[in-house]
Amino acid sequence: MATIFYGVAGEGNGHALRAHLLIEHLKKKNTVHVFSHGKGYRYLKKFYPVHRILGFHMYYINNTVSSVLTGGINLLKFPLMLLASLRYPAFFLRHNPDLAITDFEPFCLYWAKIFRVPCISIDNQHNITNTAIEDIPSQKISELYSRAVIHGFVPFPAETLIISFFFPSLIKKNTTLLPPLIRHEIQELKKKKYQTNGHIFVYQTSPSYTKLISVLKQIDRTFILYGFNREEIVGNLQFKRFNDNEHLVDLATADAVIINGGFTTLSEALYLEKPIFAIPVHRQFEQILNGYYLDKLGYGVTVPEITAENFTLFLDNKEHYRKNIQKIHWDENKAFFEKLDITIENFEKITF
Fold first, then answer.
1. Which of 71, 110, 121, 275 would be 157's cystine partner, CB 3.0–4.6 Å?
2. 295 with 273, same domain?
């Protein structure tokens, strides 16, 4: 049995949803101490004691990452983040962990290095730095920025486990590329074989993309929208606030989905065989890369902006995308858990 410190990024929901699944697995054989902030902290504290820290946050204007706001506000907050991160050394000294795991939470890895504790990185972001992704010429600045952030957040972990729905060649040592992690709730939804209600499921990372709403009003379909912090019906648009059970059923019964390009929702939509219309947040290269491969593999369409014309064309071709999605092989997390368990055992042998 190992004592593990697990740092979880709090930006967005994906890191915390993934961490919840992994913590449940890890707790069967190990003692796990969880650290997070933001949405990650608010979600995970419903299930476990979570040590609250402060972390980085992205700011959006009109479906675009604002470099000025994101950089400026995070720079001003950094001294407080550093102060809050002192929870780590206090717990390192008290509990003497055998291993650290970071899901894109930088302070976990830095403190692990200071205390000479091996750290495993688990995320999808390292596809950008550790694999031979295809070049997207129009996005070089965003790519370089993302590479710098990844190297700064998670420099030289002892082992890197990347989850991905596309599989480029590896270019870094101590790296393994694995299929997406699928929550048990999503697996159960698929087993129930829900019939589609004909609606389109919409989820947006930020409510700042107001053009989306005006375009959807022009299209003769019912849309159920999440991420806008509203609860109302406006014509063919039904806005809902997140409720775990309801929003998952809305996803399972949807005819297709509109998302930005965040990894977790994209992966779950693919698992449920939903054609995807992706509008990546501008300047967020991780989403742009996901959208690029989504398009390339024929699982849906990726566009910089939605129009009534390009969305109608997507609907005309959605069954073609669905057939491609149905060819994906899913192993219900077996390969990932096997690799994770072996990795932990190997580090335990070194530590002990």
1. 121
2. yes
